[in-house]
Each structure stands twice: as structure tokens, then as C-alpha cells.
From TrEMBL:
Keywords of the record: Oxidoreductase
InterPro entries given in the database record: Aldo-Keto_reductase, NAD(P)_OxRdtase_dom_sf, NADP_OxRdtase_dom
This protein's name: Aldo/keto reductase
Record-linked Pfam families: Aldo_ket_red (PF00248)
Domain NADP-dependent oxidoreductase: 19-318
GO CC, alphabetical: cytoplasm
Lyase found in the keyword field: no
Length: 340
């Protein structure tokens, strides 16, 4: 049996798979973009395992590429052109609202640029279901940002509104303007901050889905990275504090519980990490990335893994300890526009 859940807000009638799929790593990757046929297979793998009437939640961005261009959504346009029957079997969320200089900009001018870029790639084959500003534009009030988004929604550019990297307070204020369908925040055993818990609880109270991105800690919890040399020279993670030599050794040591539980259950460490995120609430939807069909299936199957009460307790203790070293993004909270 494949586990499913309902989305929140204005999409509460939509049923999606328990695990969603992030598409960023198809085109934002150290080894260069994946060919279309591999991307297409990776998407179809997740959709095809779902029962009738259940949609696969896909998460893209109009800047997902090594050059910050629209390659990822352009690939999606080609996918839907080739497989039109998948348009209604997927729920597509797209992030945008970045200026030409890649600043976070939720002005109407910037948002309309995103609409044009996204629609040029997707239409007439697929209309995006949900739009999210990639970060909260701190130069504007959330009420003004929401006003712009509601205007675009009423014009028919998308059907639902989401936020990304927002605080619980911002989420509550935004939802008072117009019902939010989903809030995307980083959630993992190594990213379980005080604000993470606040957003999850506020979203539960307001009937909003939480999309937990990087549930495997950018592969830190996957059991495949044992030293810095395991990362390609051009891999962006080499620039993250958590993957610096000394920090990486420490962070791997405090994560040893994950492969231990995985071995006991006969599953992968990544699946344990994803399954734990799903235990945080029926409204919390893990959002792991995938750029290959076998990885999509591994991720999705994590939604059907049942962790025991003792396993959850052990993993909760690990997450609550918060002993991970290094910030989760480049720079600190302000530089990375975290918790806007």
C-alpha cells in the first residue's frame, strides 16, 4: 500500500504521495545537467507508483541550473509536451521571484518576470499549480508580498500560493491575507531548529502543508559520504560549513544512529532519514531531491516505512540534541535569507 496525504490551504482536496520530489539536482549539479531522458524517467518513476487519483508533488524553480537559468522548467515543458497525460497526475510547485542579479525580489515587476519565464517554458502543456517566492523579500512586508501574489493568482497564473524559508510568524501573517497551501522549510535530523518546530506547529494549526526540503541533510545522512574527498571538486557542498573537513567528521559521527537503524530494518540510511521527517505530522511532506529513477523510487518507498516507537524516540533524541556543526547554508541566517 502506498501512503498518501492531503495538501493544505486552498488545495485541501488534492491527494498527493507521502513523499514529494525536488527537481533541483537535475540541472544544478557538479557533473552537469542530466539528459532529458534521465530526468523524464526520474519523474515518471514516482508518478507511476501512485494509485489513481493521487498526484506526485513536484518542486521546481525558474532558476534551477548551474547558471541560474530556467533549464529545469524548460525540461519540464518538454516533459509535459512528450507526456501530456502526466499533467493531471502531477502537482507542480515552482519557486521564483529573483531579480536578474539573483536577489530575492517580490515586487510586482519581478514576479511578472517569473510568470513570463515559467509560462514560456510550460504553456500550453502545463499550468503551474502553486507558486512560491524562493525567499521572503525583507524589503517588503509580507502583507504586500501576499497582495502581489493574490493579484497574480486571480489573473490565472497559478492556483495556489506557497512560501519558502518563512518563520512561523510570517506564515501566520501571510495566511491571514490569503490561505497558504504549503510552506517549504529545511527539515531533517540535522536541521531541526526551534523555528523549524514553530513552523511545523503553526502549519498544523492553520491547516497548511510543510514541505521538508533536504531531509537527508544534503546526503550527510545517506551513508555514502565518509570524507571530504568523496565530494567532487566542483560540488557546492564543499563551500558549506557542515562539509568542511573537521565539521564533516564530527557531523558524520553524531549521525551514526541512522545507518545503524537502517541496517536493522533492511532499508537505506536515506530512507530512515526521510521516514523520520514524515513522523513529524501528516501535514509534513518530505521533499528529497532526485535526478535518477532509482533514487526517486528509493525516496518514495521511504514513505511506506514504519519506524517503531523506540526508533522514533532514538532519532528524536538525536535531532533534539542539535549537535551538528556549521550553518546549513552559505553564510548565516541573514546572508542566506533564512527564516524570513
Amino acid at each position: 500500500m502506498v501512503n498518501t496525504t492531503h495538501l493544505g490551504g486552498t488545495a485541501s482536496d488534492v491527494i498527493v504521495g507521502r513523499i514529494s520530489q525536488g527537481l533541483m539536482t537535475m540541472h544544478q549539479r557538479a557533473t552537469g545537467p542530466q539528459p532529458d531522458e534521465v530526468c523524464f524517467a526520474a519523474i515518471k518513476a514516482g508518478v507511476d507508483r501512485l494509485p489513481p487519483g493521487v498526484k506526485m508533488f513536484l518542486n521546481s524553480g525558474d532558476f534551477y541550473s548551474n547558471t541560474w537559468g530556467p533549464e529545469n522548467i524548460e525540461m519540464l515543458g518538454r516533459f509535459y509536451a512528450k507526456y501530456p497525460e502526466y499533467a493531471n497526475r502531477t502537482f507542480l510547485s515552482v519557486k521564483g521571484a529573483r531579480s536578474p542579479t539573483m536577489q530575492h525580489d517580490s515586487s510586482m515587476e519581478s514576479l511578472r518576470r517569473s510568470m513570463e519565464r515559467i509560462e514560456r517554458a510550460l504553456l500550453p502543456h502545463k499550468k503551474m499549480d502553486l507558486f512560491q517566492p524562493a525567499r521572503i523579500d525583507r524589503s517588503m512586508t509580507i502583507e504586500d508580498i501576499m497582495g502581489n501574489l493574490v493579484t497574480l493568482l486571480k489573473e490565472g497564473h497559478f492556483s495556489h500560493i506557497g512560501l519558502s524559508e518563512c518563520t512561523a510568524e510570517t506564515l501566520r501573517k501571510a495566511n491571514a491575507v490569503y490561505p497558504i497551501t504549503a510552506a517549504e522549510i529545511e527539515v531533517s535530523l540535522t536541521a531541526y531548529e526551534v523555528e523549524t518546530k514553530k513552523v511545523i506547529e503553526t502549519a498544523r494549526e492553520l491547516g497548511i502543508s510543510v514541505l521538508g526540503y533536504a531531509p537527508v541533510g544534503r546526503s550527510l545522512l545517506a551513508g555514502k559520504i565518509t570524507k571530504l574527498a568523496d565530494l567532487p571538486e566542483t560540488d557546492y557542498r564543499r563551500n558549506l560549513e557542515r562539509f568542511k573537513e573537521d565539521n564533516l567528521e564530527h557531523n558524520l559521527s553524531i549521525s551514526s544512529l541512522v545507518p545503524k537503524i537502517a541496517a536493522q530494518k533492511g532499508v537505506t540510511p536515506a530512507q530512515v532519514a526521510i521516514a523520520w521527517v514524515a513522523t513529524l505530522g501528516q501535514h509534513v511532506i518530505p521533499l528529497p531531491g532526485s535526478s535518477a529513477p532509482e533514487r526517486t523510487l528509493e525516496n518514495c518507498e521511504a514513505g511506506d516505512i514504519e519506524l517503531s516507537a523506540d526508533e522514533i524516540k532514538e532519532l528524536n533524541t538525536m535531532a533534539e540534541a542539535g549537535e551538528v556543526k556549521g550553518s546549513r547554508m552559505l553564510g548565516g541566517k541573514e546572508e542566506s535569507f533564512l527564516w524570513g
